[in-house]
Amino acid sequence: xxxxxxSVAPLSPSAAPQRAAIPGSYGWPVIxxxxxxxxxxxxxxxxxxxxxxxxxxxSTVFRTNVPPAFPFFAGVNPNVVALLDVKSxxxxxxxxxxxxxxxxxxxxxxxxxxxxxIRVCAYLDTAETKHGQIKDFAKDILRRSASTWVSSMxxxxxxxxxxxxxxxxxxxxxxxxxxxxxxxxFLFSFLSLTLLGADTSAFPEIKKSGHIMIDKxxxxxxxxxxxxxxxxxLEEIFLHSFSYPFWLVKSDYQKLANFVENGAGETLARxxxxxxxxxxxxxxxxxxxxxxxxxxxxxxxxxxxLSSLSEQKPGVQExxxxxxxxxxxxxxxxxxxVREMDLVNSFVYETLRLNPPVxxxxxxxxxxxDLSSHTTVYEIKKGELLCGFxxxxxRDPKIFENPEEFVYNRFSKKRGGEELLEYxxxxxxxxxxxxxxxxxxxxxxxxxxxxxxxxxxxxxLFQRYxxxxxxxxxxxALKKAK
Length: 482
What we know:
With 482 residues, this protein is α+β, with helices and mostly antiparallel strands. The chain is 46% helix and 10% strand. Mean pLDDT is 94; it is low at 1-14.
């Protein structure tokens, strides 16, 4: 439960935060950013990179550099102010203080060629008119698809798990079946249907390879900023030293655009008539919503969800299974039934806490302002880039007890953990305590749909199986429900 003595509520005058200069340094030009880049990707890894500096400076707020940097990123400034506690991190969601224009992955922005030559919603600031139009369009898509979301999901899941069962049976005793690509195939088909209104079965090449096209499109944009843990120094030399040209995925992207244009006609028409977007704006924003926001996010999140499940003691699966079967009405899954599954939802939130699909959030100061951590006030100058590393923020010991531990019932109502949802920031905003996603903020339009979808996914597994054994991205045993 929340430790009341360490709440982030306003402090009394006697305990008011002290003013201080922001610790840390950017180092020498070229040398400093290059050194930090090597530490970030090679010698320490992203989480240790931030954790070690937090320990060194005895501060959750400090100056440092983040990739990409030298040698071939002209015009990219790697200097950031890192924010690593819940209170300082929350400033990133104040639209009056922070500008979100073109800072999705920091000062580096992939070429707009990857998005049809336009700046899609993720790169727009809340002050831009187009942001509100696209955000409202995204919310409308989710609202309209809500009635068929779960039924479409379970139908597609049936095909995925039938296939995995067959593969596992064919592998024999001691065998396994990888779920990584089957999971992506499921997600691409399901999300295309619910978000676009496009049935992949009518487009054979897209049905077969659409998920791979999205994987490649995401990879070539983001490789300069992410660690993939291949052999060093090859990763540094060949993957992090320069941005990649769009022509590597141009053909695939055009096929995806054609798929949206030909398969999502009704959704495109609504974008133009009701939300005053051009056809091109609608197509490329839909590809981004489908590929980056939904498919990319869910791919990472569901892998984390299954990994978290594999790491629990046997009794946890038993408790989840018992709750699922007690709460199911007429054995039919729905958003309404999973909302009543306290432990299932807590498990989902705890996974989001420790393994958020998007680990970093950025924002540029609109003006000079005072930024507060739990203990200190810092002066932020207009134009400075702020960087929050969410996996550490969500381990803030002043908010979460045993912050490094996966506590599957941490957010359960029975445990009193609902109030902690005010400090769960996986969605570019808190899970509870604010009006939620709107045209005036950058919070994910699917702030509620994502955890509810994950709860349906978990509930489906324990409706279908008594026990699931998972290891290293593969299913090793499935015990069907009796």
